[in-house]
Amino acid sequence: MTTKSVLTILGSLCIAAMLTLPAPAAERALEILDQPGYVPTPEEEMLPAEFRPQPVYFRTSEPPGTIIIHTEERFLYVVQENGQAIRYGVGVGREGFEWQGLLKVSRKTEWPDWRPPPEMIERQPYLPRFMAGGPGNPLGARALYLGDTVYRIHGTNQPQTIGYAVSSGCFRLVNRDVIDLYERIPVGTKVIVRQAAQL
């Protein structure tokens, strides 16, 4: 059995154990599982059905093409015509890193390099100071940068974190989904971040 096989089995056992924990405890456990350089398998990237991209009915006055993120629900919506949207499962900011507001996609990058900001290095000193883009990069296959902030919508090498609040304020999708989103969304797209759906 290879080292990667052993790590995959151990990772799967840890994830299975975490799923039996209350959500806050599971999110704290997932935060510890940061693995820069780890390349997930296709099986690991297969999300539960509710987090896979799908068309849904969606009431909004925003024009088609707008991105709306509901952080409490862990969903990102791309508004479509006729009261519909494409819904994606996302990972969101953990406690203390939640935010909401209105921004625009300022730029887009394929296979972005990763330079953890100083405040992240201070919290997690074991992180690399630089990692070139690639399958093991924590930013994943694509990144959409939000305004002039440090926040992004990006891919991830940790598909098990989709549906949880574990990030430092960014929104993460599995690589297959962020590639699909990247192709749909031009620079300048409006992005609305909300804590919950507005009734």
Descriptive report:
This protein has a single domain, classed as L,D-transpeptidase catalytic domain-like (Beta Barrel), CATH 2.40.440. 21% of the residues lie in helices and 25% in strands. The protein has four helices and eleven strands, in the order ααββββββαββββαβ. The protein is globular, with a radius of gyration of 16 Å. The N and C termini lie far apart (53 Å). The N terminus is likely disordered.
Which key terms come to mind for this protein?
alpha/beta, L,D-transpeptidase catalytic domain-like, 4 helices, disordered N terminus, single chain, 199 residues, two-stranded parallel ribbon
Count every helix, treating DSSP H or I runs of 4 or more residues as helices: 4
Tally of strands = 11
Q: What CATH architecture label applies?
A: Beta Barrel
DSSP helix fraction: 10-25%
Largest sheet: 9 strands, mixed
* Outline type: globular
Total domains, how many? 1
Work out the strand percent: 15-25%
The CATH topology corresponds to: L,D-transpeptidase catalytic domain-like
- Please give the radius of gyration in angstroms: 16 Å
The succession of helices and strands, N to C, reads HHEEEEEEHEEEEHE
What is the CATH class? Mainly Beta
Briefly note the structural class of the backbone: alpha/beta
Q: How far apart lie the N and C ends?
A: 53 Å
- Corresponding CATH superfamily: L,D-transpeptidase catalytic domain-like
Strand arrangement within the widest β-sheet reads 1-4-3-2-11-6-7-8-10
Chain-averaged pLDDT = 85
Low-confidence stretches: 3-21
